[in-house]
Amino acid sequence: MATILRDWSYKYQWLYDGISRLAALTVGGETNFRQLALQGLNINQNTEVLDLCCGSGQATNFLVQHSQNVTGLDASPLSINRSKKNVPSAQYVEAFAENMPFSNNQFDLVHTSAALHEMNSEQLRQIIQEVYRVLKPGGIFTFVDFHSPTNPLFLPGLAIFFWLFETETCWNFINTNLFDLLQEVGFYLVDSELNQPVLYVGGSLQVVQVKK
User: Is the Cβ–Cβ distance between 51 and 70 less than 8 Å?
Assistant: First the structure.
């Protein structure tokens, strides 16, 4: 169960941004963190990109540097308004990730950053199905999110962070076999030589890239 800091972090953008920047120091700073899910991907100015659960636009700001066709989606009107002010060059849609108002096969790339852990099991499954639907054949779904630490020394720090800012969905998420869910829907790994996510920060952060 999260503390009141969770509510404050969503209410006050300066606090949310500060927490994000502090957490990003574990991988070398904000710029490095935002690039993790994009590594190795071929993105150009014509790539149709969806920034799923875009929040106040932190990742969207990096995506528009690669493509002029970036759409941010979030269920929160407050977040959408913040995104429009922070990154006016993107397009925005207020909607739930489980029921996206997009056509089949619309996007080349769907990206999400530290958002899937907010979802319960049924929502997570629905979102993965929706991502598959809106991606073009051969399109990429890439995301960065929490992972159960492979180095036990990182577990106390992660547990404290979860207690301060997250809910039980986060604990459920790191104990979920995401590859099973992704493969059930029809995704396969971009790099077939890897059979697991790319891990950072003692295994407490994962980057996954899968293809339709």
Answer: yes
